[in-house]
């Protein structure tokens, strides 16, 4: 069993405008052994448990749950916020119910479900029986993600390393194709980085890279992923289309240009970056997306550096 607080908001109005809200918080025990009895079992409870155990990806577990349980309750969207980030599926408008999930005194995160009509008490009771199927697979996926998070870090900057990028781009492209979600890749390179190292030393060069990452992280969302895959080369997987990804990349470029790195001895090291951005096309392979973004980066450098170039369609 697990303890959780149940929070329910009733949202009224158009375009998700909250006109009236009611919040209910109560401690509630969900006994997972009891969940396999009654109507839920007849509707495929055990089959869902088996399917949820086929993946250790948080987004995969949530996607399966949404596919299977969403139609039973007319859900139109899910939102899951946890320590390592956020996951979104479907439309996040309308009436919503919100759960803070805790298992064995471990906080898993906050799950919000959306649909067009209100959540009645009887509906919530049935939904909570199905929610039992999600908790343990979700806990396992979060533990796996935390382990990967620790092992796939660049020790200098704290962002993902090359191995993390290779795994993430395959995972994110597959997920984007499956759920028809937008995805873009920005590749960023520090202009004349060798000259910075030669003039100021490698320690200063390392500080420049950390300074750059801080500027990147100011402008990306929790759902976006940042990687250092080469010496002064970075990649950003943006969960957005080309226009929005380009807007994020351009903000990064401008801020980096406007904020030189200040050394402890007072020296200012000017920094500029060149960026190539490509948006995932229907059926496109991960490495093809990377190649198009990399080609756009090359074009930005050829055009004079310190600029953003968008990849052409494949």
Rg, Å, rounded: 23 Å
Sketch the topology as an H/E string, one letter per element.
Answer: EEHHHHEEEEHHEHHEEHEEEHE
What is the terminal-to-terminal distance?
A: 51 Å
Largest sheet, strands/sense/barrel: 6 strands, antiparallel
Assembly state of the chains shown: single chain
Strand order, biggest sheet?
A: 2-1-5-6-3-4
Query: What CATH architecture of the largest domain would you give?
Result: 2-Layer Sandwich
Tell me what portion of residues adopts beta-strand conformation: 15-25%
Task: State mean pLDDT (0 to 100 scale).
Answer: 86
CATH class label of the largest domain: Alpha Beta
Number of DSSP-assigned strands: 13
Share of residues in helices: 40-55%
Low-pLDDT runs = 1-40
Count of separate DSSP helical elements: 10
Overall 3D shape = elongated
Task: State the secondary-structure class.
Answer: alpha+beta
Number of domains: 2
Highlighted features:
single chain; 314 residues; alpha+beta; Alpha-Beta Plaits; five-stranded mixed beta sheet; 24% strand; elongated; disordered N terminus
Blueprint (SSEs and pairs):
Elements: E1 2-9, E2 27-30, H1 32-35, H2 39-42, H3 45-52, H4 58-69, E3 75-82, E4 85-90, E5 95-103, E6 106-115, H5 121-151, H6 162-179, E7 184-190, H7 193-200, H8 202-219, E8 225-228, E9 233-238, H9 242-258, E10 261-262, E11 268-269, E12 273-279, H10 286-302, E13 308-310
Parallel strand pairs: 12-13
Antiparallel strand pairs: 1-2, 1-5, 3-4, 3-6, 5-6, 7-9, 7-12, 8-9, 10-11
Helix pairs in contact: 3-5, 4-5, 7-8, 8-9
């Amino acid at each position: 069993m697990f303890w959780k607080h149940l929070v329910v908001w009733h949202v009224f109005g158009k375009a998700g405008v909250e006109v009236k809200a009611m919040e209910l918080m109560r401690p509630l025990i969900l006994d997972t052994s009891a969940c396999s009895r009654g109507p839920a079992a007849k509707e495929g409870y055990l089959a869902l448990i088996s399917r949820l155990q086929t993946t250790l990806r948080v987004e995969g577990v949530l996607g399966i749950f949404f596919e299977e349980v969403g139609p039973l309750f007319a859900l139109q969207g899910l939102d899951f916020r946890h320590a390592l980030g956020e996951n979104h599926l479907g439309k996040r408008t309308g009436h919503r119910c919100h759960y803070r999930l805790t298992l064995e005194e471990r906080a898993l995160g906050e799950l919000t479900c959306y649909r067009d009509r209100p959540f009645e008490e009887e509906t919530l009771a049935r939904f909570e029986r199905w929610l039992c199927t999600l908790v343990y697979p979700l806990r396992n996926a979060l533990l796996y993600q935390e382990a990967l998070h620790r092992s796939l870090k660049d020790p200098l900057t704290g962002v993902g390393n090359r191995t993390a990028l290779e795994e993430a781009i395959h995972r994110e492209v597959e997920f984007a194709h499956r759920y028809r979600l937008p995805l873009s890749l920005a590749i960023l390179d520090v202009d004349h980085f060798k000259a910075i190292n030669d003039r100021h030393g490698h320690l200063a060069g390392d500080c420049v890279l950390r300074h750059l990452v801080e500027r990147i992280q100011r402008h990306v969302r929790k759902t976006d992923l940042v990687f250092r895959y080469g010496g002064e080369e970075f990649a950003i997987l943006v969960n957005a289309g080309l226009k929005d990804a380009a807007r994020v990349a351009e903000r990064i470029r401008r801020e980096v240009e406007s904020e030189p790195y200040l050394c402890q001895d007072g020296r200012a090291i000017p920094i500029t970056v060149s960026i190539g951005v490509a948006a995932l096309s229907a059926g496109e392979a991960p490495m093809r997306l990377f190649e198009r973004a990399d080609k756009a980066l090359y074009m930005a450098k050829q055009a004079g550096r310190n600029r953003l170039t968008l990849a052409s369609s494949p």
